[in-house]
Amino acid sequence: xxxxxxxxxxxxxxxxxxxxxxxxxxxxxxx
Length: 31
Prior knowledge:
Layout: H1 4-30
């Protein structure tokens, strides 16, 4: 019984995690 606010928050959170992973990987490649 999830409402749309929770689902939206989850997808936003996942997008943020993927973004962080990209930034971290980019930083490692540059180092």
